[in-house]
């Protein structure tokens, strides 16, 4: 970043939220003389943070969260004259922490809660002997030394209680709960991990993740730039991407043995210039693209045994490559073509690696899985760098290979003997087929109805309505009326998505005392019949099992009655009429609702 800024003198990053500075972040900033990091969130200081700041003279670290200064925190800053650590949380400083600051003339340590025990005794003596401006930092603990300047405390008074002698300014160890850590080596083997554990130290150099449940190389792995060894053996990794090991320029050992790798992309190991040992042993690799090791210039050991190598002309380059410097120890053998089966990769002459026709489909499909047509039920296949392949499923199917049927009829939504047919398409649901006559129904010959409602948008009486619902389904509202006042309204909608349906809904009864209705329920109507204009189908359970098709005619006057009883009765003032039964072929209803009640008070 700074290599081209050769005349840069000052960097001011104050009043931000900087909590971490990567080692070498200021590489190339040799001309910078002032670095301001005041009012940030730094908790610790490492010498690597300031690498490259050879000309630095002023370092401002005021108002951060620094709690401890190590003896190597400022290594390399030999030209710094002013160092401010004012207003941090420093309790102790390791002996020799400022020895490398050879030009230091001003050191601001004020407003820090120093614990003046035996660990800090050296600092009092150092401040007395050095002729530098300090502002007289004071002790915060113990109580008998509070507010006394450090340089005024007698050496014997810097004392420790039993057990405190070994405390010092030790770095707080950071190690994931699932792992064991020793210095910068982290072992997380055989912990059933599927993702990187939280809390990995940023400076980890060796990471053992073998014997876990990884199916992909963790993407966050590339953020640990100091890694020198990564062991991912005995996992379930099936593919690598071109970015699996980005930014891991210090990696020297990569172990991927005993996984499920079948194909490795050409740029999988790009940038691994320090890699010396690569183990791909015990996978399912048949071929490797030429040039895959172009960036791995330091590689000296390649373990690729126990793989079914297809030793044709496409692998001739590998035969020649391993013979240069004997990079492969003579374990890898060919599995095909037939005349090469069992031959060693290292010792078989490269000229023997010949093509005699196309490889088998099984070999080709490892790097082009769509060739094996894995998608079922007419799903379309797409190669995917991470998942090997993806299937785009047609309507009515889901699953990795479109093997799961989205059968809306599986829950048996059709009642009373209705037959359900699953629909395909984006809005897949179900369509009821013609049902058998409901129990107690009779179909009588009557005047043919010319105004039967077809399935689809309804055009019945204006007081009733139908509107399109989600994904092509209909939302129907059927009204029952008396004396021009809405008596009952029942609204419902069909499926709002795949494999779902909504049939039941609490009825609305405006203007009617609820206690006059014994019970009320609504169900999806089955069958392919339809309702005449402005009509409602009432179903009265036993003993009144006769279905009533009641024409709604406002001019007839008030209607009163109980289901199963002919009405309007003579005493109601209306003309005596006999309830009509369902017309032939109209058993049930289509795209509507059947209203059921044990008693009606109309």
Low-confidence stretches: 425-602
Under the CATH scheme, which class of the largest domain?
A: Alpha Beta
Shape category: elongated
- Number of domain modules: 4
CATH third-tier fold name of the largest domain: Leucine-rich repeat, LRR (right-handed beta-alpha superhelix)
What is the CATH superfamily label of the largest domain?
A: Ribonuclease Inhibitor
Strand order of the largest sheet: 10-11-12-13-14-15-16
Organism: Phyllostomus discolor
GO biological process, one term: negative chemotaxis
Pfam family, one: LRR_8
Disulfide bonds: 393-402
Per-chain topology:
Blueprint: E1 10-12, E2 34-36, E3 58-60, E4 68-69, E5 82-84, E6 92-93, E7 106-108, E8 114-115, H1 121-129, E9 139-141, E10 180-182, E11 185-187, E12 206-208, E13 229-231, E14 253-255, E15 277-279, E16 301-303, E17 309-310, H2 316-323, E18 334-336, H3 361-364, E19 380-384, E20 388-392, E21 397-398, E22 404-405, E23 420-422, E24 430-432, E25 465-468, E26 474-482, E27 485-493, E28 519-524, E29 535-539, E30 548-551, E31 593-599
Parallel strand pairs: 1-2, 2-3, 3-5, 4-6, 5-7, 8-9, 11-12, 12-13, 13-14, 14-15, 15-16, 17-18, 29-31
Antiparallel strand pairs: 10-11, 19-20, 21-22, 23-24, 25-26, 26-27, 28-31, 29-30
Main location: secreted
Pfam families: EGF, LRR_8, LRRCT, LRRNT
Domain EGF-like: 368-403
């Amino acid at each position: 970043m700074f290599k081209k800024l050769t005349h840069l003198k000052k960097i001011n990053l104050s009043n931000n939220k900087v909590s971490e500075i990567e080692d070498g972040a200021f590489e190339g900033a040799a001309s910078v003389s002032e670095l301001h990091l005041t009012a940030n969130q730094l908790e610790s200081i490492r010498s690597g943070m300031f690498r490259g700041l050879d000309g630095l003279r002023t370092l401002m670290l005021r108002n951060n969260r620094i709690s401890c200064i190590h003896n190597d925190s400022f290594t390399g800053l030999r030209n710094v004259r002013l160092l401010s650590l004012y207003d941090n949380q420093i309790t102790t400083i390791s002996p020799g922490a400022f020895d490398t600051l050879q030009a230091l003339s001003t050191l601001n340590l004020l407003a820090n809660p120093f614990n003046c025990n035996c660990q800090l005794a050296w600092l009092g003596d150092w401040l007395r002997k050095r002729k530098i401006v300090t502002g007289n930092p004071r002790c915060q603990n113990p109580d008998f030394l509070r507010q006394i300047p450090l340089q005024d405390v007698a050496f014997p008074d810097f004392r420790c209680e039993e057990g405190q002698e070994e405390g010092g300014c030790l770095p707080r160890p950071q190690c994931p709960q699932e792992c064991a850590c020793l210095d910068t080596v982290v072992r997380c083997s055989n912990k059933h991990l599927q993702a990187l554990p939280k809390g990995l130290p940023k400076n980890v150099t060796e990471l053992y993740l073998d014997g876990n449940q990884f199916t992909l190389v963790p993407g966050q792995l590339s953020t640990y730039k100091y890694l020198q060894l990564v062991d991912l053996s005995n996992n379930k990794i099936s593919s690598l991407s071109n970015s699996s090991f980005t930014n891991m320029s210090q990696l020297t050992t990569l172990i991927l043995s005993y996984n499920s790798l079948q194909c490795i992309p050409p740029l999988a190991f790009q940038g691994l210039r320090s890699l010396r040992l690569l183990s791909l042993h015990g996978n399912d690799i048949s071929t490797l693209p030429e040039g895959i090791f172009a960036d791995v210039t330091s590689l000296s050991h390649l373990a690729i045994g126990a793989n079914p190598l297809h030793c044709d002309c496409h692998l001739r380059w590998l035969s020649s490559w391993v013979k240069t410097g004997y990079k492969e120890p003579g374990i890898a053998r060919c599995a095909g073509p037939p005349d090469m089966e069992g031959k060693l990769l290292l010792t078989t002459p490269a000229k023997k690696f010949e093509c005699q026709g196309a490889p088998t489909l099984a070999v080709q499909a490892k790097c082009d899985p769509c060739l094996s047509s894995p998608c079922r039920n007419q799903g379309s296949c797409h190669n995917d760098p991470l998942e090997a392949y993806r299937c785009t499923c047609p309507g009515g199917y889901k699953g990795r290979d479109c093997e799961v049927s989205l059968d809306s009829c599986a829950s048996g939504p059709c009642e009373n003997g209705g037959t359900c047919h699953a629909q395909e398409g984006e809005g897949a649901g179900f369509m009821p087929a013609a049902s058998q006559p409901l129990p107690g129904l009779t179909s009588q010959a009557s005047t043919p109805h010319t105004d039967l409602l077809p399935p689809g948008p309804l055009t019945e009486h204006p007081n009733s309505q139908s509107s399109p619902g989600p994904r092509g389904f209909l939302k129907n509202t059927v009204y029952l009326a008396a004396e021009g006042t809405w008596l009952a309204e029942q609204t419902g909608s069909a499926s709002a998505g795949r494999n779902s349906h909504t049939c039941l809904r609490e009825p609305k009864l405006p203007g009617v005392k609820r206690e006059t209705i014994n019970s009320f329920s609504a169900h999806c109507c089955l069958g392919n019949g339809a309702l005449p204009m402005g009509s409602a189908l009432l179903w009265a359970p036993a003993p009144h099992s006769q279905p009533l098709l009641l024409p709604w005619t406002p001019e007839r006057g008030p209607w009163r009655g109980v289901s199963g009883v002919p009405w309007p009765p003579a005493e109601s003032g209306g003309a005596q009429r006999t309830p009509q039964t369902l017309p032939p072929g109209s058993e049930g209803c289509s795209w509507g609702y059947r209203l059921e009640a044990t008693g009606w008070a109309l």
